Structure formats: structure tokens, C-alpha cells
Amino acid sequence: MVDTTSGTRRRSSAPTPEPRKAIELIGARKAYRSGTIEFEALRGIELSINVGEYVAVMGPSGSGKSTIMNILGCLDTLTEGQYRLGGDDVDDMDEIDLAAIRNEQIGFVFQGFNLMPSLSAWRNVEVPMMYARVPKEERKQRAQRALERVGLGSRLENRPGELSGGQQQRVAVARALVGEPTIILADEPTGNLDSVSTMDVLTLFDELHAAGRTIVLITHELEVAQRARRIVWVRDGEIMRDEVNAA
Q1: CA 184 → CA 138, 191, 200, distances in Å?
Q2: Which strands form 54-58's sheet, in the order they lie side by side?
């Protein structure tokens, strides 16, 4: 484009592309029933997370944050509302589709590590690939690479009992990463760790976010939540605040 008043050439600025949505909860309601008593764990939540975001969902026990984790991880279903994953409506998926999502698109990290005590580190990491029917030799190679990514390349043969709490959680993170998921869901991942191991694991999440992973971190600890770039505050099944973390 030419500016006729000055004779100089100006470039038209291209419109900024809309960010892609990784996760959308729309009017999300979850109710549990015991006999004649109904408990609302989620009360019409609206939540949108873009691809590549690092979001902490924070709240006290009973606030609904673990229910959000189960819904996002396709471990539970909504009573009302919609859950869209990468633009696709999860309600339209059958159990085979949901199992594929849990195995391929989402990596889970739990507070309790969930490692098999009798298996070595690399064999714990290969478990998701066994369900995906990845050939045995490829499983070992990918498990080794995943453990190297989390700084445990020299601990391939160690069993969980031979590792510190922080190292066990790193094995759990490697297991979550081995399928190259686009989303990491971490439920109180530092709850069983000392302060040093907590910092190690949170630094690892920082690195995964920098590499482009979408991370949703469930926690009740403010110091942990403040490592995320955005904090969603939940109480009594509702979102009370949703703010960019300036820390």
C-alpha cells in the first residue's frame, strides 16, 4: 500500500489470528446423587483454555477443582453443559474414542505418583504404550528418551523404592509425556513432596510449558499456583476469579 501524501510505502498490518482453544467448558454442571440427596460439585462453570497456556485451578478441599480435573481428563462426564476438547464435543464420543484421548492426547500426573513398586523406572513409563500396543523395542527406546527429558537417564533400572519422592514424580511426569500428549493434567503433583523436590517438579513444568505444552495444574497451594501464567480460583463449584498471574 502506498501513502500518496508522502510517497512512502506502508504495509497493511495482518489481523492477529484467534488463539486455538484446547479446552472449553460451557455451562458445565456436575451433580452427584445419593438416595434422595443431590450434591452439586460444579454449578454452571464457563472455562476456556487456549493451546499452550499454563493454568492453575486453585481452591480448598471440596471446591470442585478435582471434579474439574476428572471432567477435563475424560474420567467423568457432565450432568449438564458441554465439554469441548480441541473443538470436538466430548459428549459425542464413545468409550473407545475417550480411551484413545486419555492415552494419546492427555498426560496425567497425580499426587500419589501411581507407580508400580515392582517395576523399574522405564517399565513404569512404558505402561501407557502397552495399552496402545506399541512394539516392545520401541517402548523401551521411547521410555528411555522420556526419562532423559526429565533428568533421570541414569535411573532407568531403579524401582520406585530406590528413588526419592521428587524422582518418583519425575518418573510419573515421564510416563505422562511418553505418548507425546498435547495436554498435561496435574492433580496436586507436589502434595507429597518436600520443598526442594517441589521446586524441581515445578521447574520441570515450566520447561514443558516453554516447549509448548498446555498445562492444567490442580492445587490448593498458592505458592504452587503462582508458577502458572493464569490462576482460576474455584469455590463451592463456581469460578470466583480468573486472572492473569502477574507474579
Answers
A1: 22, 17, 17
A2: 106-110, 183-187, 214-219, 54-58, 230-235, 238-244
Percent of the chain residues topping a pLDDT of 90: 68
**What count of residues does the chain have?**
247
Return the pLDDT at 3: 55
Q: Is the pLDDT of residue 6 over 60?
A: no
Q: Between 135 and 24, whose confidence is greater?
A: 24
For the chain, which domains are there?
52-78+95-244 (3.40.50.300)
Residue whose C-alpha cell reads 499452550 in the numeric block = 52
Mean pLDDT of the chain: 90
- Closest C-alpha among 167, 169, 186 to residue 228: 186
Beta strand 21-34 pairing with 37-50:
antiparallel
- pLDDT value at residue 9: 56
C-beta of residue 118 within 8 angstroms of C-beta of residue 159: yes
Three cell numbers written together for 106: 492427555
pTM: 0.86
DSSP-based helix, strand, coil % in the chain, nearest 5? 35, 30, 35
